Amino acid sequence: xxxxxxxxxxxxxxxxxxxxxxxxxxxxxxxxxxxxxxxxxxxxxxxxxxxxxxxxxxxxxxxxxxxxxxxxxxxxxxxxxxxxxxxxxxxxxxxxxxxxxxxxxxxxxxxxxxxxxxxxxxxxxxxxxxxxxxxxxxxxxxxxxxxxxxxxxxxxxxxxxxxxxxxxxxxxxxxxxxxxxxxxxxxxxxxxxxxxxxxxxxxxxxxxxxxxxxxxxxxxxxxxxxxxxxxxxxxxxxxxxxxxxxxxxxxxxxxxxxxxxxxxxxxxxxxxxxxxxxxxxxxxxxxxxxxxxxxxxxxxxxxxxxxxxxxxxxxxxxxxxxxxxxxxxxxxxxxxxxxxxxxxxxxx
Length: 348
Known about the structure:
The protein is an alpha+beta fold. It has helices at about 35-40, 45-55, 130-135, 170-180, 255-265, 285-300, 330-345, and strands spanning about 20-25, 30-35, 60, 65, 70, 75-80, 100-105, 105-110, 160-165, 185-195, 200-205, 205-210, 220, 230-240, 245-250, 305-315, 320-325. It contains seven helices and 17 strands.
């Protein structure tokens, strides 16, 4: 909940407000400023946000707006109101086809197609993989009901294709989460990147955190300054002159880790619009070459990244499971076009 969403409500607009939260103060509650009282009711909400909402008239006690210094009393009815209706958080089961690679009573392995959002969120409340999972499997353990991520212990980006594990029980979900935390999940990705890395094998290290200039993208920072520790190992599988197919093994699982790390070393993922890979970054100035690249962009209208391999010890049986998946059709087709181009064209 964002207390800042309606800070300028006028008296004329009060009939358009919607109640988002209501609290009845306990009988034994001592006198306490309402901003301090509400601070203990919400996680991740600053006192200043609560104060701003109170100043805007969005915090009511017994149906009357109060200031931040109002002292709550036993049996007070406290309401939080905003100018928009509260979003329903009920998950809607949707009959969306899923590529199920493996299933047992404890977990499911899904090969996610590119373009599918993993879980509901702002602007994507339906049509996600979670909506499909709820339809196909019914009740799933809720890791965080507010975030609508039942059964999930990890995710991959909307435009990344490949393998995901989903838990069917709360115990297995907790155990899988611990495996990820302990870095005992083996994950291998294939990526098509611009250029040729200097070394055939290498390791990219650098903290990953929100860019200080653009909060929608991730950036790489020196150790200890900002962000979270991140390590990506890579191996060049094939080089096509102007682009290369690389295999990436993750030690950590940060947001946009592979995409940000390769952009950091000067080799953005092919057609990654977020990290600058949707431009002709290597090659000739010839019109035919530029048209060839544009044709490739049209074939794979997303960043060229696939979660190919997933391996872990089954939380219940103790058996090591290893799953491998074929590259998504669009990525495989583009790689084949570059392979053919590198053979038939003279690369300078």
